[in-house]
Amino acid sequence: MDKLIIEGGIKLKGEVTVSGAKNAVLPIMAATLLTDCACIIKGVPDLRDTNTMIRILRSLGKGVEFDKGVLTITALKNTNCVADYKLVSTMRASFCVLGPLLGKLKKAKVSLPGGCIIGVRPVDLHLKGIRALGADIHIDSGYIFAKADKLKGAHIYLGGVYGSSVLATDNVMMAAVLASGRTVIEAAACEPEVVDLAEFLIKMGAKIKGHGTPIIEIEGVKHLHGATHTIIPDRVEAGTMILAALITKGDIFIKNVLLKHLGALIDKLEEAGASMRKEDNSIHVKYRKPLNAVNITTLPYPGFPTDMQAQMMSLMSITPGITIVTEKIYPDRFMHVAELNRMGAHIQREGPHAIVEGVRNLSGAPVMASDLRASASLALAGLAASGKTSISRIYHLERGYERIEEKLESLGARVRREKE
Ligand code: UD1
User: Taking the complete model, does pTM exceed 0.90, yes or no?
Assistant: First the structure.
């Protein structure tokens, strides 16, 4: 296992280009299971998670080539309907092969993904939606066995205790596109990544309306064909780079950004007093003056994203004043709190809240990455801190940030990788 060493205290400066969105590409790759024709996906980030999904698709009988950000996915002869535990357990998004496998082959055996460090993460909404389409589902030996003679459109309410579910919406939408008749998903997730999947399915011949709103309507079709699609930019990477500029008091020009996907974050940062110049597909963030503390509450899109909570907490940890962070999607997603405190932050956890008292400086320390976004928050803290920070278990960061060291180095950061 590698660790990332950061010599902090350098103002980042320069230009950086955001990669394609991890959370968009994974379900889109799964959607190619719905056709035997070739699909071409462009702007694909070279990440640990993308490579895991390539292995899953290959294990399910797909031919996959990945070259310079372009995936070419074709069907081989022997289609397999079993998604194995070894692969699914390493990445929760792989559970979204269930919908397309069932839609296309009318049967699927998919390992349950299990929990992870940020919480229990059940799949009840996925199963509720897929059952409503007429599938028979049972669980045995850690696997979901799903089968249906025929899937039939249905009216499905998909809201859960914590609101809508991104991957459940994806899974049900993918199962419904080849079902007979009309499906309505109520309380659907509105995240841009769900919209990107719907756009891809439409290019494949699916009939979908209302994506991007809480009510998605799908008219089943008999077959889907191949399609070519370019993945949307990663809004979490863009947001992390914006915070990298602010936390290091730097000056970064960030390209390949869809500003409309960053509304909640930009609004909060403007409330905190940050100055940003917004252009069509880019944003220029230059630190000009100390920020004010602002409270944040994570919510489903278009609310403040849970995937930016940890990084925003790092910024607030050196912003004068008190910030209250409320986590409404994953009430246990606070593993970074203790690590930030090791670097000198003053943060107290109170159930689904964290109370952050801004300190003047952070100081470098050995810390441990617990999940993808927590690792990003520690990297941001390390960039701002005085002295050396070493982040263990850096493979978490590789799951979601393409060529991150290279990008940070190009902005002047002193980062290097070491074997643990
Ligand atoms: C996706 C994102 C992840 C992000 C999350 C919330 C991908 C690959 N991952 O994960 O980065 O943090 O959305 O924006 O796109 N829930 C249930 N029952 C279910 C499913 C979910 O109760 O069947 C709960 C979850 O535990 C959580 C909430 O619903 O509290 C939202 O989770 P969900 O939107 O499903 O997250 P994912 O789609 O897994």
Answer: yes
